[in-house]
């Protein structure tokens, strides 16, 4: 699955267009994406921080792509998630890297890291489960 | 609603309706009920938040964002003297596919507050389908106490 094809799929999903991100790299167990900052992503309008829900949504989208990059109709079905917020997401690009820790016949477990200028300074860390049937 | 002062209600209304930019404005949230016992908020259907071409299936992430926002409101209402708050962690279970063009209702409350931390839980369903919960979430928030309220800080603008 090449990145161009995946991004073409991404651009067909209304909510993914709302998030405004692009997949940067992809292999069988990982996906990395970059989201462009927009005013509609703001949670704290004074400090212009990303809304925590937008960060979680972007991480969920990246995780779903790592699990099923070739989704035809809708992205992989999420079961649940937990997110740890480690630093505020400031105005600027946000990155996410999803790592499929286990992919079985029915379920997949994915861990996602999100950062801005320095990968070592995570903005958030999340665990996502998907139903594959 | 009797346990909420009129002043606080006005602050909440201003804070949510007059901020002008950001996700909460885009979600066009309407506050239906507010008390220290909990809050109920309505999010009108928005095709931007869907994942399918027919635009009738909501992305889970928007429900997560909705819960996060409404937890913040519940804390603001339930806790006096909070200057700022930040989501520490969040867990959301997606209980059913969110397939409908109906408005979304969120009910949330703060079930424990300490000096530094607030604990929240909430439920999400489509208007008219209270018996078919589509998501449930729990979260914890780090609170910063202070004289300057969140609202005052917002009014004054970026000072720190």
TrEMBL record, chain A:
Acyl-CoA thioesterase-like N-terminal HotDog domain mapped to chain residues: 50-124
Gene Ontology MF terms: acyl-CoA hydrolase activity
Pfam families: 4HBT_3
Protein name: Thioesterase
Organism from which the protein derives: Pseudooceanicola atlanticus
From TrEMBL, chain B:
Organism this protein belongs to: Pseudodonghicola xiamenensis
Superkingdom: Bacteria
Matches recorded under InterPro entries: HotDog_dom_sf, PAAI_dom, Thioestr_dom
Lineage: Bacteria, Pseudomonadati, Pseudomonadota, Alphaproteobacteria, Rhodobacterales
Pfam family, one: 4HBT
Keyword Hydrolase among record annotations: yes
Name recorded for this polypeptide: Thioesterase domain-containing protein
Gene3D superfamilies given in the database record: Hotdog Thioesterase
GO CC entries: cytosol
Domain Thioesterase residue range list: 57-125
UniProtKB keywords: Hydrolase
Keyword Cell division in annotation: no
Entry GO MF terms: 1,4-dihydroxy-2-naphthoyl-CoA thioesterase activity
């Amino acid at each position: 699955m090449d990145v161009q094809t995946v991004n073409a799929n991404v651009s067909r999903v209304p909510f993914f267009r709302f998030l405004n991100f692009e997949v940067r790299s992809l292999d069988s167990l990982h996906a990395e994406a970059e989201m462009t900052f927009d005013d509609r992503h703001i949670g704290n309008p004074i400090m212009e921080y990303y809304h925590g829900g937008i960060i979680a949504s972007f991480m969920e989208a990246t995780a779903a792509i790592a699990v099923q990059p070739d989704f035809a109709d809708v992205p992989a079905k999420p079961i649940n998630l937990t997110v740890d917020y480690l630093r505020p997401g400031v105005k600027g690009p946000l990155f996410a890297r999803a790592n499929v820790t286990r992919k079985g016949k029915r379920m997949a477990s994915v861990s996602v890291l999100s950062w801005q200028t320095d990968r070592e300074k995570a903005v958030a860390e999340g665990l996502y489960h998907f139903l594959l049937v | 609603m009797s346990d909420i002062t009129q002043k606080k209600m006005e602050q909440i209304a201003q804070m949510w309706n007059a901020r002008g930019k950001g996700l909460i404005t885009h979600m066009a949230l309407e506050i239906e009920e507010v008390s220290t016992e909990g809050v109920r908020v309505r999010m009108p259907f928005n095709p931007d938040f869907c994942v399918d071409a027919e635009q009738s299936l909501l992305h889970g992430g928007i429900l997560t964002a909705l819960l996060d926002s409404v937890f913040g409101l519940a804390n603001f209402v339930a806790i006096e003297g909070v200057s700022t708050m930040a989501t520490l962690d969040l867990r959301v279970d997606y209980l059913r596919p969110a397939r409908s063009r109906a408005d979304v209702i969120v009910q949330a409350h703060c079930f424990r507050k300490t000096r530094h931390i607030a604990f929240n839980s909430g439920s999400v369903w489509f208007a008219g389908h209270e018996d078919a919960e589509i998501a449930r979430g729990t979260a914890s928030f780090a609170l910063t106490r202070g004289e300057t309220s969140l609202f005052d800080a917002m009014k004054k603008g970026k000072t720190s």
